[in-house]
Amino acid sequence: MKKFTSTFWLQRPIHWSLVFSLISLLIACNSNNIPVGPTSLNSRYTEEQPGLSGNGRFLAFVSNRNGNHQLLLYNLEEQRLIRIPGLNRPETIAESPSLSYTGRYIAYITSDQGRPVVALYDRATQQSQILTPTYRGWVRKPNISPDGRYVVFETASRGQWDIEVLDRGPNIELDIPNGATVSSPP
Q1: Residues near 33 by Cβ (< 8 Å), separated by ≥ 6?
Q2: Smallest Cα–Cα separation from 119: which of 147, 140, 145?
Q3: Which of 39, 54, 98, 149 has the fewest Cβ atoms within 10 angstroms?
Q4: Residue 138: left if φ>0, alpha if ψ -120 to 50, beta else—which one?
Q5: Is the pLDDT confidence value at 35 over 50?
Q6: Residue 4: helix, strand or coil by DSSP?
Q7: Do 134 and 170 meet the contact criterion of CB atoms below 8 Å apart?
Q8: Beta partners for 58?
Q9: 49-100 pLDDT per residue, tens
């Protein structure tokens, strides 16, 4: 009888430490710690595929809030969502965002007649344009250069995944910080 009592006594501290550990874990993971609202970075919905601007001010990501799969832009300094009119269209999906240096240009994947295409959104003009309308294969994972001139992406036009570099040309308005010098490419 004495042996049963001493074994029970030794197991009791282990039992209580487990209970206290679980309670403290539940308190630490309280959902009230997550900022929730229409303008907060995180919500109760899935947020994924983040892309950060070169200056670290803007964050683009894909979210399922409001029942829609949409691309959102968040200002990290002001801690608020930025409107991007014309980018999220009904019946289309926007994915894999990539931002230029100041976040003026957003390269992303969208659908055109059921096929994924690389598109570019210009926040200054609030216009989107499809950059890969004639690609026969699938495209994915676009990335824009900090100045906004070059867009790289993966394509399966040759039956395997290859890398393509798209030069938007020397006459585009570059996304550079104010006062920066621009040198022409060699």
Answers
A1: none
A2: 140
A3: 39
A4: beta
A5: no
A6: helix
A7: no
A8: 75
A9: 999 999 999 999 999 887 788 999 999 999 999 999 999 888 788 999 999 9
